[in-house]
Design brief:
Layout: E1 10-19, H1 23-34, E2 39-43, H2 49-53, E3 69-70, E4 73-74, H3 86-100, E5 104-106, E6 110-115, E7 121-125, E8 128-137, E9 144-145, E10 159-162, E11 176-180, H4 184-195, E12 200-203, E13 213-214, E14 217-218, H5 219-225, H6 261-266, E15 270-272, E16 275-279, E17 282-285, H7 289-314, E18 337-339, H8 340-343, E19 345-350, E20 354-355, E21 384-386, H9 403-428, E22 435-437
Parallel strand pairs: 1-2, 1-8, 2-5, 8-21, 10-19, 11-12, 11-19, 12-15
Antiparallel strand pairs: 1-22, 3-4, 6-7, 7-8, 9-20, 13-14, 16-17, 17-18
């Protein structure tokens, strides 16, 4: 069937519609094409928009290049143990898009998706209406940048941006910078500003950290050898709760290294606990900085200890023996208030994450926090799937390393379901409609 252009009076029917044109959406398209299943990718911006426009200039992957394994497009460069920078990631993804050649409509906003009693999906978009037998949601889980209401009370002269908007130190006015949140993005942005000579104030949280290298190898390589990245969410000690965990902070910058907030403190960065309020010209923090640092270091040492145990069990020979991180700095006291004007802070970067927004999807598949409930991307509603979410099935599900296997698994399910639909049409002795009148 040749798809026809949608208009306001008729709905174009496509067997499968993919919402989102990132690595997940194109991975799904890759396998759908292999199975000759007609489909369409709807992308509200452009392909790989987030990777191209929502990363800072000094961004690098925190996972080594050898883990980049998109469908039909593994990393083939000359630095498998290195970490692609922003430009290299975009080049890698552009090459993937060129290989896939997905049937994509860019600049198309999906307004709503709903399902009737017969299982037919209606998709209202900015270019017209569609119907589909099956929907794959590949729009990710990071939709609305979180900025707390206290931000409204900060002085107007303070520049405020979310981490998704940060590019480099030059975009900010002269003066100190407060980074709120020390997760993977916040810690790396704080480092970037620190290396550029800016005075940085960092409000920490309970983010864990991990070593970059340990006993002669990248920790990612050790964990891969140990089978961690093949562990499904169903067998993880934390179960599905692992999906809400904050990513460990580390960096691939300059060949990869640890991020040690304590070391930054010895070099002039000011660290604080969780920021909770702004009152009468002062920022207010919880007295939990030391707890945050100790907990992060405990995670760091625990991961290394598990590597030590595995090395011993497997009889692996290494040039380096076990070691334990020892703090290079400790806070003399817990500072719970900071006068904003006296500090010289002129900018605030909010790096406290995102919240999901699937308000356009009318389906009873969400929990109380707005996250979809599923089993490896398969929801309880027939014909509705999710792909590319963190820990959809394994650690790599939301990354270049695991989306391929998840996509292949889902397309097998989709192919089987499509066969059932075709058999149903044949049993009824009718030809399934491809173009249906809109309501």
């Amino acid at each position: 069937m040749v798809m026809k252009q949608a208009n306001t009076t008729r709905s174009t029917h496509v067997p499968v519609i993919i919402v989102g044109g990132g690595q997940a959406g194109l991975s799904a398209s890759y396998f759908l094409q292999q199975e000759n299943i007609e489909h369409l990718v709807l992308e509200k911006n452009t392909l790989m928009h987030g990777w191209k426009h929502e990363r800072w200039d000094s961004f690098t992957l925190v996972t080594p290049n050898w883990q980049c394994d998109l469908p039909g497009h593994p990393y083939t460069g000359d630095d498998p143990d290195g970490f692609m920078n922003h430009a290299e990631v975009v080049e890698y993804l552009n090459a993937f898009a060129e290989k896939v050649k997905a049937p994509v409509h860019e600049g198309v906003t999906v307004y709503s998706v709903s399902c009737d009693t017969k299982g037919l999906y209606s998709v209202a978009t900015s270019e017209g209406n569609y119907t589909a037998d099956q929907i794959i949601v590949c729009s990710g889980g990071y939709h609305i940048p979180v900025i707390p209401r206290m931000a409204e009370r900060l002085p107007e002269e303070i520049t405020q941006i979310h981490s998704a908007q940060y590019k480099n130190a030059a975009q900010l006015p002269e003066g100190g910078v407060l980074v709120v949140g020390a997760g993977q993005s916040g810690a790396q942005i704080a480092e970037d500003l620190h290396l550029e000579g800016r005075k940085v104030y960092l409000a920490t949280g309970d983010s864990p950290r991990v070593a970059r290298f340990y006993r002669g190898k990248d920790v990612v390589r050790w964990l891969d050898d140990m089978g961690y990245y093949r562990m499904s969410v169903d067998h993880h000690p934390l179960g599905k709760n692992v999906r809400s965990n904050t990513n460990h902070y580390v960096t691939g910058r300059d060949g990869g290294r640890d991020i040690d907030l304590r070391k930054f403190a010895t070099e002039g960065m000011e660290l604080y606990g969780l920021m909770t309020d702004y009152q009468e010209g002062e920022l207010v923090f919880q007295p939990d900085l030391e707890e945050h640092l100790d907990t992060a270091d405990a995670t760091y040492n625990n991961i290394n200890s598990r590597i030590d145990q595995w090395i011993e069990q497997q009889g692996v020979e290494t040039d380096e023996g076990p070691s334990v991180y020892k703090p290079v700095w400790k806070p003399e006291s817990e500072r719970t208030r900071l006068n904003l004007a006296e500090s010289g802070i002129t900018s605030v970067i909010w790096s406290i994450g995102y919240r999901p927004d699937f308000s356009w999807l009318d389906a009873s598949v969400f929990n109380g926090q707005g996250h979809p409930q599923h089993q490896r991307g398969v929801t309880g509603q027939p014909g509705l799937y999710f792909l590319g979410l963190p820990w959809l099935h394994t650690w790599g599900s939301g990354r270049f390393s695991g989306v391929r296997e998840d996509a292949e698994f889902l397309i097998d399910k989709i192919f089987a379901y499509q066969e059932q639909l075709d058999e149903h049409c044949a049993d009824q002795g009718v030809e399934c409609q491809k173009i249906t009148e809109s309501a």
